[in-house]
Structures are given as structure tokens and as C-alpha cells.
């Protein structure tokens, strides 16, 4: 029996994908396989997914997700090629399509940049096709990643910007969360109460953004009364360059992604005229 999908790499993201696919009913457990070389990790995966095949070698499969660390991609692709797989989705960070195709041959390759929120089914991912990938291959990749979040299509050169924004973005939000909790404590709140309020505030703000359809600017204005407390807080954030710091952080992460992928490290200036008017 040919496996419908093999996930090569049983780390956190590979595990999240399998869990999401099962929860979404994308495939029954006996049509999925996780390939993991580390014995202890295989044992953990067997415990979580008792009906999914967990093994140390790539089986014949209709499709494969390459979910290993960048340094392990060459070996993983060699194993996938030996298994005769004709369709590959790679979520290996920073590994260009050209590198994947060189290792795999004339195989339909789709490269993706997901983020860590896929672990809770709320990920943001972008996908880009290789030269042998058609619309059906893109649809297949989107189906898989949609099981753990939202998916957009971009040309491969824009995956570096995706990395800088949504790939690294959760860390920026976590930093804001840390700061809010610390600020609440400094203002006199007990730590547990400050944490609960800060996290619910972030969750509520995100839901307002996604569920109302209003722009960030409109929602910000709606809670900012002239001369009020929010206006006072926002004045301090703007004076401290908070907006500019976020833009610079995304630009720096984008440039680093290009550098790691072998491309030019220079990013467009975040204060220039490149689409930020």
C-alpha cells in the first residue's frame, strides 16, 4: 500500500501538521506516515499517534512534506528521491527551491514558510511553486497547510519577507506580551493578574482585527479618546519609535533570511519609498 502522505521530520512542526491533518479529516491515520530517525522521538510520536505509521525510512508515497532542519535537507531529499516520490512540500527554513530541485530531480516542489502558531492550529504560511509544480500541486500544498492555519501564495523571492513578517512575527508579539506583563506589575498588579489581562488583551485585539474586518488604524482610533489615557500611552510609544522599531525588525529579519538563503543581504529601506506610503 502506497502511503498518501509522509512527513519527513517528526519535530514540533511535523507533529503539528500530522495532528492538524487528522483533526481536519484530511486523511485517515493509516494513510499517513512520519519519518523520524531519533528513536526517543519516534516513541513519543507513536504514543501520540498510535494509528499512524512512525518509522525511520521514507516509504513509497504519493507526496512528502520535508520538515527537517536546514542542515538535514540534503539527506532527507536523497531519501525522498530514492523512494520515488513525485510531489514534495518543503517547510525547511531558508532552503531555496533550486536547492531542493537539484537534490530531487524533476519533481513537483512547493516551498513554504509556516510559523510556530501552526502548533495551535493558528499558523500563517506562504507557499511558492517550483518549476515543475502546477496548480494541482499548489492546491495540494495549500490543503495540507490549511489544516493548521491560513495560507497565501507568493513568488519565491517574497518568502524572505514572509519570514521577516509572519515567520519571525510571533517572537515580536511575545516580546510585547512580556513588556505588558512587566508594565502591569510595575503599575502595582499581581503578576498572575497582569499576565491574564495582558494575554487576553492580545487575544481580544487579534480577534477584533480578524473578525470585524476593520483596519488597524480604524480600531486604534476607536479606542483613543482625545486627551484620554490611551492617547497618553500612544504618545509615549510613538515618541519612543515603537512603530519604526517594528518596521526595522521585519526588515532586518528579511535581510537575514536572504543572507541565509544565499541571496543578497540588503533589504529595502523601511523608511524609503518601497510600498510604505
Question: How many domains would you count in the coordinates?
Answer: 2
**C-alpha end-to-end distance:** 55 Å
Task: Write the CATH fold name of the largest domain.
Answer: Rossmann fold
Named at the architecture level, the CATH assignment of the largest domain is 3-Layer(aba) Sandwich
Number of helices: 11
Regarding CATH, which class of the largest domain? Alpha Beta
Specify the biggest β-sheet.
8 strands, mixed
Which stretches of 5+ consecutive residues score pLDDT under 50?
265-277
The average pLDDT value, as a whole number, equals: 92
Map the helices and strands.
Layout: E1 3-8, H1 12-24, E2 32-35, H2 39-48, E3 53-55, E4 61-66, H3 73-82, E5 87-90, H4 97-104, E6 108-113, E7 123-129, H5 135-146, E8 149-153, H6 159-167, H7 169-186, H8 191-212, H9 216-222, H10 229-239, H11 242-260
Parallel strand pairs: 1-2, 1-4, 2-3, 4-5, 5-6, 7-8
Antiparallel strand pairs: 6-7
Helix pairs in contact: 6-11, 7-8
Amino acid at each position: 500500500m502506497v502511503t498518501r502522505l509522509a512527513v519527513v521530520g517528526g519535530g514540533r512542526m511535523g507533529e503539528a501538521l500530522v495532528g492538524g491533518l487528522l483533526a481536519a479529516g484530511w486523511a485517515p491515520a493509516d494513510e499517513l506516515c512520519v519519518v523520524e530517525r531519533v528513536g526517543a522521538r519516534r516513541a513519543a510520536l507513536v504514543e501520540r499517534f498510535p494509528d499512524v505509521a512512525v518509522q525511520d525510512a521514507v516509504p513509497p508515497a504519493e507526496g512528502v512534506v520535508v520538515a527537517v532542519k536546514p542542515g538535514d535537507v540534503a539527506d532527507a531529499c536523497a531519501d525522498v528521491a530514492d523512494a520515488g516520490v513525485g510531489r514534495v512540500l518543503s517547510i525547511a527554513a531558508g532552503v531555496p527551491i533550486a536547492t531542493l530541485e537539484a537534490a530531487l530531480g524533476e519533481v513537483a516542489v512547493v516551498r513554504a514558510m509556516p510559523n510556530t502558531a501552526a502548533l495551535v492550529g493558528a499558523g500563517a504560511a506562504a507557499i511558492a511553486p517550483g518549476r515543475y509544480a502546477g496548480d494541482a500541486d499548489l492546491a495540494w500544498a495549500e490543503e495540507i497547510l490549511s489544516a493548521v492555519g491560513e495560507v497565501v501564495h507568493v513568488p519565491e523571492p517574497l518568502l524572505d519577507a514572509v519570514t521577516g513578517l509572519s515567520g519571525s512575527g510571533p517572537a515580536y508579539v511575545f516580546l510585547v506580551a512580556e513588556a505588558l506583563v512587566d508594565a502591569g506589575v510595575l503599575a502595582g498588579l499581581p503578576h498572575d493578574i497582569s499576565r491574564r489581562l495582558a494575554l487576553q488583551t492580545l487575544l481580544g485585539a487579534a480577534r477584533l482585527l480578524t473578525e470585524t474586518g476593520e483596519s488597524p488604524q480604524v480600531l486604534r482610533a476607536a479606542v483613543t479618546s482625545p486627551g484620554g489615557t490611551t492617547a497618553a500611552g500612544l504618545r509615549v510609544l510613538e515618541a519612543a519609535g515603537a512603530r519604526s522599531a517594528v518596521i526595522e525588525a521585519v526588515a532586518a529579519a528579511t535581510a537575514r533570511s536572504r543572507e541565509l538563503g544565499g541571496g543578497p543581504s540588503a533589504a529595502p529601506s523601511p523608511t524609503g519609498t518601497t510600498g510604505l506610503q
